Amino acid sequence: MSRFLLLIIILFSFNLILGCSKNAENKITISKLKNNKEHQFIAYKEDIPRTTANKVDLILTNANGKSYSFTEESPPPPNYMIYFNDRKKENKLTVHSIWLKKGNETILKKDNTYIELNENDSKYINEIINNIKK
After folding, report:
1. CB of 108 within 8 A of CB of 117?
2. pTM of the entire structure?
3. Beta strands 113-117 and 96-100: pairing type?
4. Rounded CA separation 99/102 (Å)
5. Which residues, in sequence order, are CB contacts of 101 under 8 Å at separation 6+?
6. What pLDDT, in 10s, does the model give residues 71-110?
7. Between 27 and 13, whose confidence is greater?
8. CA–CA gap between residue 104 and residue 92 (Å, rounded)
9. How far, CA to CA in Å, does 65 sit from each of 9, 47, 77?
10. Could you tell me the strand order of the sheet in which 80-84 lies?
11. Strands (DSSP E) found in 1-134
12. Above 60 in pLDDT, residue 33?
């Protein structure tokens, strides 16, 4: 009887560990502007490590930097749109609009304002986009 109970506990623990490891990845979707007209997916529900997803989400959600103004009367469409498939707030996905400028300069639309991300955050977001595109 005790061996049977021990076997059940071991199997339960094994299943618990496997279940937790499956959740170690997050799914990210990135679309890229093509021909200044429409966005096409370059990554659809792409698996990325949880730590990377958390850092990207933190940068985009808590973006800080200086205010940015486009020279055009109305801003051009964003170069990229990023969202996490498994991070819904009130059953809605938060879509992050991103413009890449010369160098590593990254512009983010947040609450109807445009923010130029600081150099480190810009570099990180650019690396994520470039690594996923491959």
Report:
1. yes
2. 0.72
3. unpaired
4. 10
5. 107
6. 878 888 999 999 888 777 777 888 899 998 887 788 998 8
7. 27
8. 30
9. 51, 28, 21
10. 38-49, 25-34, 80-84, 96-100, 106-110, 113-117, 65-67
11. 25-34, 38-49, 65-67, 80-84, 88-89, 92-93, 96-100, 106-110, 113-117
12. yes
pLDDT surpassing 60 at residue 59: yes
Q: Which residue has the tokens 């010369």?
A: 102
Q: Give me the pLDDT at residue 37, please.
A: 81
Which structure tokens are listed for 70?
């486009």
Looking at residue 78, its amino acid is P
Whether 40 has a pLDDT exceeding 50, the answer reads yes
Token pair of 104 as six digits: 């590593």
